[in-house]
Every structure is written in C-alpha cells, then in structure tokens.
Amino acid sequence: xxxxxxxxxLKLKNPVMTASGTFGYGEEYAEFVDLNRLGxxxxxxxxxxxxxxxxxxxxxxxxxxxxxxxxxxxxxxxxFIGEKLPFLRRFDxxxxxxxxxDSVDEYAEAAERLSATEGxxxxxxxxxxxxxxxxxxxxxxxxxxxxxxxxxxxxKTALPLIVKLSPNVTDISLMARVAMEAGADAVSxxxxxTGMAIDIKTRRxxxxxxxxxxxxxxxxxxxxxxxxxxxxxxxxxxxxxxGIMNAGxxxxxxxxxxxxxxxxxxxxxxxxxxxxxxDGIIDxxxxxxxxDIGSITGTVHAG
Amino acid sequence: MxxxxxxxxxxxxxxxxxxxxxxxxxxxxxxxxxxxxxLFRIKGKGTSILRDLKEGAEITVLGPLxxxxxxxxxxxxxxxxxxxxxxxxxxxxxxxISKKAFVFYGARTEQELFVTGELEKIYKELxxxxxxxxxxxxxxxxxxxxxxxxxxxxxxxxxxxxCGPNVMxxxxxxTAAANGISAYVSLEEHMACGIGACLGCVVxxxxxxxxxxxxxxxxxxxxxxxxx
Lengths: 303, 228
Fold this sequence. Notes:
By secondary structure, chain A is α/β, with parallel strands linked by helices. Chain A has 8 helices and 16 strands.
C-alpha cells in the first residue's frame, strides 16, 4: 500500500498535513501525536518581525464551526529558527513554514531567509488571511497583486512553494491560475471564510476584531466545491482543507481533486485527529482495495 | 490519571457530534478518591448537555491543564476569594490549605452561592456576602476583603487567591496593590484548544499577550493589564 504523495515537488510520506495556525509549532501537540507519522507539519504563520495579534475575545464558537481573529500573532522568523525549528528537525516529517508579510518586499525577504535555513522542506504563503482590514489582505483577492507577490517570492526560493488561497473571492479558479502562473508549485485551499457573530444582549460583535475567519465542519461543503472547481479547470497540485474532522472528510477532498489534505480546527477538538485520520485512510484503502492513495485524487471528475 | 493541582482545569467533550464543536474548559473543583469533580453553572448549550448526561456516560476529558495556584509558604496567610461560580476554581485550594485559609465568598444572591455547607468544614475564617443581603453580609466580596485588610492587624504576610468575574478580580488586584499584598487570580477567556496552540484565549499582560490555557489560568494580578 502506497500512502506517499508528491505535491508539486514536495514529497510526503502520507497526504495528511496540519493546517497552519492550528498546530502551533508542533511541540504543543507532541505529547498527543507522534509527529513522525504526519505527512507534514505546517507551522503557525510567521512574519519577519514578531506580531502581537488582536485583542481578545479572539475566538467564538458558532454552529458546527468557530470564528477566529487571532491577528497572526507569532514569534517572528528568527525566534522560530532559533527556538522552534530545532525541535521539529528531530522528527522524520516534512516541515512547511507558513509565512506572510506586510509588503511585497517583506514577503520576498521572509522567503529568502527561510530558504537559507536547513530543515525546512517547503513554504506556504499566506496571501489570504481575512483578519486584517487593510493592507496585505488584498494580496489574495486582487489578481495583479497576487501575481506580483508570488513572483517576488518565487525569485527568492528554490523550495516547493505553496500559495494558500482565500475563499473570499468571486472566482477561486482564477486566483489559483494566477498563483500557478506566477510560479507556485501547488495551491492550498481554503483559508477561513470571513464571518461575524453578534451578542444579542449587548448588541456588540462577539469578536473584538468584529469579523473573523470561519472554520470547522460548517465550511466543508464550500471547501470541497472550491477544490473541485480548481481541479476541474487547472489540474494542478492542490492541498485541500476546510472542516476536515475525520478520514471520510479527508478522502472527500482527495476525490474532489486534492493531492494532500490539511487538518485544522479538528486539532482543537481532538488533539489526536491527524493520526486518527491517517489510520482511517489506511482502513479505507484496505476496504476499497486501493493500492496507491494518489490514484483517488480527482476521481470524482471521471466519466 | 495525572494528579491535578488546585487551579488547574480540564477540557470536557460535550458532544460526539459537530455542534457544539469545541471542548469546554472547567476548573478542577475537587479531587476525590474516585476521580475529579467539576462544578458548573448551566449557561448555554454545552453546560445543558453536561447536566443531562446520565450516570455512567463516558466523555473524553483533556487535562489537567494550565499552571494552577502557587501554594502559600508556611509563613503566609492565604486569603481565598471567590465570586459566584468562581468558587469552583479556588475550592480545592481552600481544601488543601484548610487550616489556615481565610475564605471570602460572594454572590449576587443566596441562590448563587454554592457548596457553602462544604466550605464550612474547611475554613479558618469564612465571610459570606451577597449583593442583596439574602445571605451573610450585605455587600460585595471586594468590600469584605477591603474591610478585612484594613481592620485586621496581626495577619502575617497575607497572600490573595481569587477567582470570579473580571470586574471583581480587577478590584481585588487594586486592593492587593494598594496594600502591598501578593495576589494570584484565575482568569477566563474564550478557549478553543486548551493546550496552547490556537492562541485564542489570550489576556493582556505588562509583557504582552499571554495564553490563559498555558501561562495561566492563574496569573500574578500585578502582571495583568486590566480593562477599565
């Protein structure tokens, strides 16, 4: 049985990764999960300088999901390299660094710094976080800006480059095409969907940031549809994510067109979700007589 | 089972389905020979589900989590202060240091005071107060603590442990600072994972945001940047 997948040049021992921002820097989960078993660990999004993040409340639960407005709090690239990466390097799993910047130059500089560091197997560009009202959030919604920022990063890195797409656009296939033409090796989708919740007693938003990103099972049908559309129009390597709670959900994304999947909010609900999903995929392959997990990618499009 | 420390908490699964989705955080109330006890007030969907659990029902529980209260030294006189359901967090501490604990327990009204019978067995001194005077002293627990601190000489090295509404904790922090008393407060914030990954449950401190689930839930009151 072959669980290995190749996503745009990124070789993974199995198709199950962690979604950025839901797995810390890996060590938070090490007492629950054997990190060696994961296809990849995608770390919490990093910027050149540390970021403080948004004031609380930052999270609120909604029907079958949650809104978050963490505000990209992170320790910065240098501290990550010095304090967190050495721990991750002890494991036999791919380390993918999610990163973002406030300008095209910052993106490029971050990519350059990360690419010069041993022990990082791939980069994932966040061009889609919906938590900021202004500035860089347009990177992921304006095709021209996307072209520029992805192109600038591409020049600075030889590592497999994944661009994480925002669902808060009219045509996600267009954004995927733009990212690929600018040099991305793969796309990951979807990031959270901008949402809002209001406390009817105080008549105030439940999040201090007013709006936040919706994740969890509530968004899964939207995410599956978007993976389906991007695969149908482009046939490019896709990492599918959005509300994956169990192996069945993960397999749904693969069939829709994903070559790998990322588990996000499920880690908060059950810290062992990732390895349970890997076990479930193996189980499915045995029952269905599937020899190679890659063979089911995009099979919904057949016939 | 890992032995819990007073002030630590657990994440309880409230549903096997997708709604409610996240686990819910509850303080350790008591460690008993059989296991642990949780004390909660029915507030929303999650706590209603917990109330309706049948005896023998199985749920997944994560914990103990967080740091817990630092225990007082032999020389210190602990003042244990609870507002409403905040008693759930400080009860096991009061129990552990029962011989020397000065306990202050306040609520809006008598109906919102829990486990007072249990408390009577473990205090050195107990002051109960209610906003409406329906039980104990009429007034807030903050008033009671202020009176105590002002009027009692001979209390050696008082140290405060408190859990309750944010406004109460903020006022207790002021009292502590004004009188040069160390104070440890247990804080609450919306939580998703409980293990330090999501960065959802932060509080503002003088050295930046800190996670209630990991660096807390117990903080030195002097470290917190209180909301006005």
